[in-house]
Amino acid sequence: MKIAVTYEAGQIFQHFGHTSQFKIYEVEDQEIKSSKIVDTNGSGHGALAGFLANEEVQVLVCGGIGGGAQAALAEQGIQLYGGVTGDADEAVKALLHDALAYNPNVSCNHHDHEHGGEGHTCGEHGCGSHHCGE
Q1: Contact criterion met (CB below 8 Å) for 64 and 122
Q2: What gap in Å lies between CA 43 and CA 49, rounded to an integer?
């Protein structure tokens, strides 16, 4: 099985559509056998699901993710664990031991709302840990 994590400097990157790298883990018998970091080469929201499918990924761990991207992942048969923060390696280990804290209703609707002029982006306030726009 292959598990991908949105990745930046060892941590789970908090905005799926803007991730520039994934860390992809090869897993057998609930154990990490290998991992590699791959660049997305500037792929946007829509193309990332196809990118992961081409890498034969079955599971994605990420922070915030919008509805369109969630639908694209579902079309590719990729299982989503969103709303996750922290160390990428530790998150995958927790997933393998059924101990991963995630949000099954994660969303990041940054395209559809304003933050009252605060001037920050979803990645900076951790969209994965709350519902933007609520």
Answers
A1: yes
A2: 10
The full DSSP string for 99-116 is -----TT----GGG---T
pLDDT score of 120 more than 50: no
Query: Using CA atoms, how far apart are residues 28 and 2, in angstroms rounded to an integer?
Result: 9
Is the CB of residue 122 less than 8 Å from the CB of residue 13? no
CB-based contacts of 18, cutoff 8 Å, min separation 6: 123
For residue 59, the cross-strand partners are 3, 79
- Range among 44-48, 68-72, 89-93 rated most confident: 89-93
The pTM assigned to this predicted structure is 0.80
| Strand 59-61 versus strand 79-81 pairing type | parallel
- The tokens for 114 are 């304003």
Q: For residue 48, count CB atoms less than 10 angstroms from its CB and return exposed for 0-12, middle for 13-18, buried for 19 or more.
A: buried
Torsion over CA: 64, 66, 69, 71 (sign): positive
For residues 81 and 101, give the distance between their C-alpha atoms in angstroms, rounded to a whole number: 9
